[in-house]
Amino acid sequence: MKILVTGAGGFVGSWLCDALAAHGHQVVGFDVRAGETAGVSEWHSGDVTDLASLITAAAGCDAIAHLAVLPLFRSSDDPVSDLTVNALGTLQVLRAAQAAGVRRFLLTSTSAVYGASSGCLSEDAPLRPLSPYGVSKAAAEAYCGLFARTHDLQTVVLRVFQVFGHSRTGDLRITVDGHFLRAVLQGQSPVIQGDPDRSYDFVHIADVVSAIRLALETDLPPGLVLNIGSGKATTLAQLADWCIAAANLSLRPELQPGSPASPGQWADLSRTRQNLGWQARYDLAEWIRATLQSHPQPPTGFEPWD
């Protein structure tokens, strides 16, 4: 297939482009940043709200993987830009798909749409977002459902939980796992802000990429929504303890006051297994050990899920 990837220069996008090319697909990259990404045969620099640029990039494509996004950590400071990129941007990419005759459309969404919902969450759980980011991604999902119902577009939404893993350069990211690992590499205690029993569902970038690829390659019912996670809850206290133990340090996590506790969430993967035959393969604790053992040159590659 010829596949347009928006946000091709980002964390997930850069890994995805390489993986799609490795599986024989022709990849067209689109990103607001100028540049190139491994695996991309054709590159377009443009704004995700620019319909004309998107139609040009989508010409001749069989599918679109829409990853371009304004991330969570920027959403509260700039909710208007968050809405513009995440909701309007998705609408414009859907319109470009329709104009260019693209039949398959994938949106990477987020567990942030569940917000205040807690526990093991199926895709039918209430959407109760707690951030502008969650609201804008819920709106993006709604647009995908609309186009599936009214424009005969095969859309699929992947609600991705907390992603871990290295960047393409091997750097640790500005995520909670990255912060904890940087601390223990410096011989310091990981700092937990807020409730140490707050839990997340962590899923490795290799597993996320494999899920996206499978969703693009598989004939799925239009308008389908699928969770992408490990199906397990990990508390911040557990995560900190794993980092300390892997670094062979005699420390305890440092606890600091933080924002009110968010609800613990993890993914119900029943529908994902049924439709994609997919499950997460990478274990967070094992990845932490491998990362610290390989310091100062952490592994940059992975074996995709096949």
Characterization of the model:
This protein has 306 residues and is an alpha/beta fold. It has two domains: 2-163 and 202-228, NAD(P)-binding Rossmann-like Domain (Rossmann fold), CATH 3.40.50.720; 165-200 and 232-264 and 283-293, UDP-galactose 4-epimerase, domain 1. Helix content is 38%, strand content 20%. It contains ten helices and 15 strands. The protein has helices at residues 11-22, 51-58, 72-75, 79-100, 132-150, 176-185, 205-217, 236-246, 270-276, 284-293, and strands spanning 2-6, 26-31, 40-45, 63-66, 104-110, 119-121, 154-160, 162-164, 191-193, 199-200, 202-204, 224-228, 234-235, 254-256, 265-267. The chain has a seven-stranded parallel sheet, sandwiched between helices. Helix 1 links the parallel strand 1 and strand 2 (26-31). Helix 1 crosses helix 7, helix 2 packs across helix 4 (79-100) and helix 4 runs parallel beside helix 5 (132-150).
